[in-house]
Amino acid sequence: MTTLRAFTCDDLFKFNNINLDPLTETYGIPFYLQYLAHWPEYFIVAEAPGGELMGYIMGKAEGSVAREEWHGHVTALSVAPEFRRLGLAAKLMEMLEEISERKGGFFVDLFVRVSNQVAVNMYKQLGYSVYRTVIEYYSASNGEPDEDAYDMRKALSRDTERKSIIPIPHPVRPEDIE
Amino acid sequence: MAARGHVQDPNDRRLRPIYDYLDNGNNKMAIQQADKLLKKHKDLHCAKVLKAIGLQRTGKQDEAFSLAQEVATLEPTDDNSLQALTILYREMHHPELVTKLYEAAVKKVPLSEEYHSHLFMAYARVGEYKKMQQAGMALYKIVPKNPYYFWSVMSLVMQAISAQDEKLAQTMFLPLAERMVEKMVKEEKIEAEAEVQLYFMILERLGKCVEALDVVRGPLGEKLTSELRSRENKCMMMYQRLQLWPECNALSYKLLLKNPDDWQFYLSYFDSLFHLMDKSWSQPEEGEHCVEGPVQTTVTEAVKFVVDRMEEQDKKESRPLRGPYLACLELIHRLRQRGCPDEKELGDPLELMVQFFGKFGDKPCCITDLKIYLHLLPPEQRSQFKKRLGELVPLGEAGEDGFGFPGDTKALQRHLCVCQLSRALGLQHALDTEGKLRLITELKAHYHHGLQFGDENMLWQCLGVLEEGLSFSPSNAQFKLLLLLLFCRLGAFQPVVDLYSSLDAKHVQHDTIGYLLTRYAGSLGQFAAASQSCNFSLRFFHSNQKDTSEYIIQAYKYGAFEKIPEFIAFRTRLNQSLHFAQVRTERMLLDLYTEADVTLSLEESVKAMGVCPEEDDIPWDNMRDNRDLTVLVSWDPKDRELTEEHRRLSLEEESVWLKVRSLTLRLLASLALLGHAPSPRNSDKTNENGISAKSSTLQTLLSQLDQTLETAAQITEKQTQYPFLGPPSSRLASALSSGSCITSGSFLFPHADLCPSLPSSLSPLRPEMLSRCKGEVLEMKDGRLTTRPSLLETLVFFVETVCVVLWVASYSASVLRPLKSSLQKKKKKKKDSSSAMPVVLCGFQEWTGSLQGVVTQALDHVKGQEASLTALKLAALTLEEGYSQTQVGSVQSSYLGSLQELGDLLRKRADSLKSLKI
């Protein structure tokens, strides 16, 4: 009961029901355009039959192939309150993983607020594990440090030995992550 | 700052400190450092440009520009200077100068891949498609890399898209683009997915669907891998355009087997099925099967297909998907539309919906799903349907009040869904007042119960419930939006500011929901807040032009060709935004009303804003309404929902109001410039011509205003009512009924060439306008509150009118003063004490006197209002009536705030009245 299609600029005018959620950031136009220009295939929106937007995922592929760090990254994933508990986020994640598989990524990673237990548990259910903690990754709108993030990862088939997800025991700072 | 070239270059070492200062925002030091460097190395052009950047950033635009031009005329070819100039020109909003820069550079260094590529991007920034096409080819000739070739091809496509003449696009640009790609195909030089995408785009735009299909299905199509289902989606698109229903049907069927929840394919499956049936299409002879596989052509097959999908879900152990069940309802809907009796084989819609509710009733989206199919129920079944659903909601034993409550969140969600559905079925609206009140009590009881796991009097009750709700769910956006709406309707803007800011609306949201603020702030007399709200939006719109161009360039670099027209359309959509035009106009009007003739003269203010009376920069014919008018969730029945007609009417109304405002602004500007005209005695011929040109602009604008007001009157006659949660009405109707100046524009704006008779053509502020403002804005009687926010709006119009009248008067005074002094001189000469003052002068003085009177009355009125508002003993309000002390208090203080701002402004105007003596 969902139409999955590429996110377009016009959707920016319709995504309020998703983005007025306090944990969903509304970025400046350049940020969205950058993703649309560089990784359009990774920006997918789910639309209900009535035309309402249900949720979207925004991601990218990055990292060095030589160092086996080429991977898919989840930049944003959000589902409107009225379309939750339908497995939509899982579906969108599955699509992002499939795209990353095709691109020959070694893993998929994402950052999530340590306090966002609902999200952390969901990612765990989808096969993600905490790779490391990033200290004060999130900051408040006044620039003050706000909260730590978990860097969560899931190995893709190219990483046969699942080396990419071996946890790093010590927390890192945002400036130390690539 | 941009790339700094090679580390070895000694100039880089010398320039580095300047770059660092600029990066750190220390522009003064950057300028000093550059000056120091230039003393030693006169020819270090880049230092000059960096100094110019510093100057530009400290507001010295002219100096910066001439310094930059000094370097630019030398046609530099060093990387540092070029990059720095590029940055400078972009900051100056002169991207077209970057093209000149690199045009010169490639002439001097014709084999530089880098400079050619910069040139291409510079053209892209300003949308010079033809030059981009040439630059792309020039690049390809120097370095035969595929992307360069395809940049050139894409630039042809852009020429086609932007061509005024569609014929030119179809017969010249696109065919040429096609041939360019074909050439590469023949030479087997196609490398990237983007190139195939672009090929497909060209063929599609040419309407060559068969060829496009061949590309997608052929070996080139194998490159389409990034996007999921890219080939299937493209094939489907072409099948639909070519009306290849068998293929469309078979492909939909195939995709649904893989993903039985993807709604778009149900739609294409049903569409194609019925097309095939209408054409009585039959399976061809053996061996000629459709390339996409088996085709279904009968209702029986479709019914079986849908039933099978449902059974598949029923058998599944994991979470069932909603798609198949809704597809079943969709199929019934379509069969019914066709009058096909077979719908019975799918079952009774009532039973199916009850079953659906049984499976998904605890999901929040159950309402949006079922809402679309409620029309399948005949009216007489509605109550029964609600009853059946009720049986599926486990509620506890009824308590004293007769209400039973759900035991867990799933039951709560089900109960909520039944409430939503009965609202959507119109069952709630059908209740009488008593029934409605009982329903409110019931829902409130349910809300309170749910928290263990949330007439005007009704309005206050709503506020109370929402406030409570917000205290339990502090980030619920719907609570905030509803509160915001209710406060606005009550005319209390102050609480709205915090509510809106807690929504954390940013960037594009200023365009989509910014109207919630800007519609009310100014009209309720909260001028400071209004001006701030406009600024938020304006900042967003102004950064848009520069921002978007950069990403158009990126799309070229990454080969996301299909995004290029999309980005351009997006930029246009923002530039043509209704809200953009509104905040632009309102911001300037606000500045004039609150500041002009207070700190600066009207003329200086107008000049500072750069308003030109002759220029109309609003895209009236292409206005885009980007407002999100459904941001408030509604479960109302269909006949109470927002329709396309509502949207059209709202846009029409807002546009006419905007036109009134923009004409008022331009009239004020033309008045200000008239005032600038030298006195007739000293004027020479040219000046006179100047004046008459200006006054003819004034005439044109006045007649436009008259026309617009006529249209406005017609619109307000319609008395369009929008759904409560839909768009707010524009200020048009209240403006017309307030008797504001704008409704009699021609009265107020004098005819410049009729100087002597000026005062008589000036209608003094009509006293009845002030009388329309009288009455208590907030009243308490028998423990109940009554609000009359329209009084505030009328008062705002009154104050705005005072401002306009004063400006007109001050213009008149400037004309009459020389007249008077010349008369006095004559008088002295003649020594004729008996000759009286001419009528015109006496008239003016009498007139300003009466104006003074009206303004004093208005000030007294405002003072009186403030006093009676402050005196209200709100603590006496009983909470049983549903009042919340904090909310009543904030409404009261908001009214006071509005009155204070209005009073302040009136006082300032009263002061400027004094200077009107002649």
UniProtKB/TrEMBL annotation, chain A:
<protein>
    <recommendedName>
        <fullName>N-alpha-acetyltransferase 20</fullName>
        <ecNumber>2.3.1.254</ecNumber>
    </recommendedName>
</protein>
<feature type="domain" description="N-acetyltransferase">
    <location>
        <begin position="2"/>
        <end position="157"/>
    </location>
</feature>
<comment type="function">
    <text>Catalytic subunit of the NatB complex which catalyzes acetylation of the N-terminal methionine residues of peptides beginning with Met-Asp, Met-Glu, Met-Asn and Met-Gln. Proteins with cell cycle functions are overrepresented in the pool of NatB substrates. Required for maintaining the structure and function of actomyosin fibers and for proper cellular migration.</text>
</comment>
<comment type="similarity">
    <text>Belongs to the acetyltransferase family. ARD1 subfamily.</text>
</comment>
<dbReference type="InterPro" id="IPR000182">
    <property type="entry name" value="GNAT_dom"/>
</dbReference>
<dbReference type="InterPro" id="IPR016181">
    <property type="entry name" value="Acyl_CoA_acyltransferase"/>
</dbReference>
<dbReference type="GO" id="GO:0120518">
    <property type="term" value="F:protein N-terminal-methionine acetyltransferase activity"/>
</dbReference>
<dbReference type="Pfam" id="PF00583">
    <property type="entry name" value="Acetyltransf_1"/>
</dbReference>
<keyword id="KW-0012">Acyltransferase</keyword>
<dbReference type="InterPro" id="IPR051646">
    <property type="entry name" value="NatB_acetyltransferase_subunit"/>
</dbReference>
<keyword id="KW-0808">Transferase</keyword>
<dbReference type="GO" id="GO:0005634">
    <property type="term" value="C:nucleus"/>
</dbReference>
<keyword id="KW-0963">Cytoplasm</keyword>
<dbReference type="GO" id="GO:0031416">
    <property type="term" value="C:NatB complex"/>
</dbReference>
<comment type="subunit">
    <text>Component of the N-terminal acetyltransferase B (NatB) complex which is composed of NAA20 and NAA25.</text>
</comment>
<keyword id="KW-0539">Nucleus</keyword>
From TrEMBL, chain B:
<dbReference type="InterPro" id="IPR019183">
    <property type="entry name" value="NAA25_NatB_aux_su"/>
</dbReference>
<dbReference type="GO" id="GO:0031416">
    <property type="term" value="C:NatB complex"/>
</dbReference>
<keyword id="KW-0963">Cytoplasm</keyword>
<comment type="subunit">
    <text>Component of the N-terminal acetyltransferase B (NatB) complex which is composed of NAA20 and NAA25.</text>
</comment>
<dbReference type="Pfam" id="PF09797">
    <property type="entry name" value="NatB_MDM20"/>
</dbReference>
<comment type="function">
    <text>Non-catalytic subunit of the NatB complex which catalyzes acetylation of the N-terminal methionine residues of peptides beginning with Met-Asp, Met-Glu, Met-Asn and Met-Gln. May play a role in normal cell-cycle progression.</text>
</comment>
<protein>
    <recommendedName>
        <fullName>N-alpha-acetyltransferase 25, NatB auxiliary subunit</fullName>
    </recommendedName>
</protein>
<comment type="similarity">
    <text>Belongs to the MDM20/NAA25 family.</text>
</comment>
<keyword id="KW-0802">TPR repeat</keyword>
<keyword id="KW-0677">Repeat</keyword>
<dbReference type="InterPro" id="IPR011990">
    <property type="entry name" value="TPR-like_helical_dom_sf"/>
</dbReference>
